[in-house]
Amino acid sequence: ISIYSDGADLSKMKESYASGLVDGFTTNPSLMKAGGVTDYLSFAKDVLTAFPKVPISFEVFGDDAETMKKEALILKDLGDQVFVKIPIIDTKGNSMAPLIKELSELEIKLNVTAITTTEQVRNAVDAFKVGTTNIVSIFVGRLNDVGMDTDAFVKESRAICDSKPGSLLLWASTREVYNIVQADRLGCDIITVPPQIISKLKNLGKSAEEISLDTVKAFQKDISELDFS
Ligand code: E4P
Q1: What tens digit of pLDDT does each residue of 126-182 get?
Q2: Probe ligand 1: pick from 61, 112, 116, 192, max atoms within 8 Å of CB?
Q3: Most buried pick, 29, 58, 78, 111, via CB within 10 A?
């Protein structure tokens, strides 16, 4: 599985990349807001200059097909490594599949985002031009956040992506390190991971015994600052 870094803070992106574990980046409007981005295109250019060969997904901001198309054409011109993120629906719930088809016909690399159902996966994959490479971002963590069991959804999404080679399945909304194990087992091509979770990957391979020991040591450290009586 490939690990992407999910965020829009350039210094954290650089830190994640320095771990040697990251093969690409994803951003979205909320992550840009959280990262303090105010000028989209100058941020995008800085990112592309910092990582000239790495796949990077930038999302359109529009909420209608016409604006999304205009923005998609600007974003794809920023560089060959850019995947243009198009939400599978607009805020009224209208399918963006016709726009995805139109952009894919132009051979713009797409990352279809905000996907939570197999029907949406099918709509995205069906809209891709044969022979092109695109990403299908399934928001698994957001489903888990509301208590849903998502294994079947991920497996079915894998099967749908297999029906059109070049459709890369990406696990989005990563909540913990264990999601990387799950995404890998369930056949995802990519998982995008927030920098604070990437920084935990240095602990991979710790034994259960070490974790127990670390736990009691941490308790003792905190106890030394407390009064028992
Ligand atoms: C990445 O491409 C997605 O936009 C991101 O993983 C969504 O994460 P969230 O659901 O935690 O906002």
Answers
A1: 999 999 999 999 999 999 999 999 999 999 999 999 999 999 999 999 999 999 999
A2: 192
A3: 58
User: Do 121 and 136 touch, CB atoms closer than 8 A?
Assistant: yes
**CA diameter of the chain:** 73
Phi, psi at residue 149, to the nearest 5°?
A: -85, 125
Whether ipTM exceeds 0.95: yes
- Sign of the torsion formed by the C-alpha atoms of 175, 178, 180 and 185: negative
Is the Cβ–Cβ distance between 110 and 84 less than 8 Å?
yes
Q: 113 C-alpha vs ligand 1 centroid, how far in Å?
A: 9
Nearest-atom number in ligand 1 for the CA of 28 is: 4
